Amino acid sequence: xxxxxxxxxxxxxxxxxxxxxxxxxxxxxxxxxxxxxxxxxxxxxxxxxxxxxxxxxxxxxxxxxxxxxxxxxxxxxxxxxxxxxxxxxxxxxxxxxxxxxxxxxxxxxxxxxxxxxxxxxxxxxxxxxxxxxxxxxxxxxxxxxxxxxxxxxxxxxxxxxxxxxxxxxxxxxxxxxxxxxxxxxxxxxxxxxxxxxxxxxxxxxxxxxxxxxxxxxxxxxxxxxxxxxxxxxxxxxxxxxxxxxxxxxxxxxxxxxxxxxxxxxxxxxxxxxxxxxxxxxxxxxxxxxxxxxxxxxxxxxxxxxxxxxxxxxxxxxxxxxxxxxxxxxxxxxxxxxxxxxxxxxxxxxxxxxxxxxxxxxxxxxxxxxxxxxxxxxxxxxxxxxxxxxxxxxxxxxxxxxxxxxxxxxxxxxxxxxxxxxxxxxxxxxxxxxxxxxxxxxxxxxxxxxxxxxxxxxxxxxxxxxxxxxxxxxxxxxxxxxxxxxxxxxxxxxxxxxxxxxxxxxxxxxxxxxxxxxxxxxxxxxxxxxxxxxxxxxxxxxxxxxxxxxxxx
Length: 552
Hints:
By secondary structure, this protein is α+β, with helices and mostly antiparallel strands. 38% of the residues lie in helices and 18% in strands. The chain folds into 3 domains: 4-166, no CATH class; 173-280 and 302-325, no CATH class; 334-548, Neuraminidase, CATH 2.120.10. It has a 4-stranded antiparallel sheet with strand order 5-6-7-8, with no helix packed on it. It has a 4-stranded antiparallel sheet with strand order 9-10-11-12, with no helix packed on it. It has a 4-stranded antiparallel sheet with strand order 13-14-15-16, with no helix packed on it. It is globular, with a radius of gyration of 27 Å. The relative contact order is 0.06.
């Protein structure tokens, strides 16, 4: 265990390095460019503090980048199985001693334990001093939300502080669309990229999207990757069918699966080209016929022109994004009692009030299955008033508060409790204003998105019918604890079924539409009515559905 003098010495050493490399002052609201510069500056300082942890090659760089980005940056196969978690406070050295340890063994274990303690204290000091330096570099109003009474910023990490600063980014809808388009760029735009290289690009772009407030889920990334593999016309039909039958939904396994096949195809074509006296050049040749030696390899003028136009457009889009991002503002990031955890759905009233849900204060978007397993009321219904800039909590203790929708006269709104298979009604006007009640209960599936058509009809999307195995698990906490520790791809999955309901404003089901085998659309999460049709969004499909309504 380190002494107080040791801790002070480590802290002062850390502080000296930060003081010698001061962070640039961020004037006004943090922007994408200012926070990126801050990350770059921190990434130059923290690696200088050496450690034996995380492979021992990059110091404490992880503290500034976070685990996901750190793994992408280091590109080190030797670290593929390394636990990149936080250095935990070491236990007592005596806990490691065994009865048959001689004096030499004891001394070695004491020395190793001392190293662990020093690295733990170094981590804590780097985070503490780093956060202190960030606070000094940023206007108080943009970090005050993280400061606690009496203990200040104790316990806040560098990465946690950076993530908080990113919540202040200003990103318009148009910019979000451009960012998403960049993520969805097809494989064909980088034909020289190996399958694994393209997958790595998607990993990087996923992180970029998250940092720019355009979260891309792991499921979205996987679906896009698979879609590109299927549309490439590179892989044999049997190979694709075998992959479908294997149900390999894990990202790492899927990338490895297609990468291995890509390599086999490349080697086979290289051998065939050699036998035919033809030239095989690179991974790009996999999507192109082998060419004779001496044949022209120059692209056509049309191709050059198209590529140039695309590059110019992309550069312009990036420049516009950088310019426009700084002109927008964040409306709200939390209430007086804490920041939002998983904001989910929104509806705007005619008076400008913005009603929205926080599905879970404990689990994020990629962890909704854990929220289901825990089955505790972490959700809330909230309202933001643009006139005052205040956010109020209307309802809390909701079981995964999901969709929200105003009634046609705006006298009440609906909010889904997904895990309870029910929808609540919250009264906004009249004698019962501020009260709530069950609007409809015992639904045939998990309610997700809900919307009103403005004429007395609510549309409810149910991404999955009810699952008996999930309901049964709630009676066995020990079983849920085991399931929660399984890899994501082994967690309970939605049934491949398409289902939407139409409700009147009294809570009666007036219509239902089904795709029983999920052939066209499955896992429907949103539904909107427009000009006689409903439009359907989904987590499980790469398309939007349209269904023309027949007069009722």
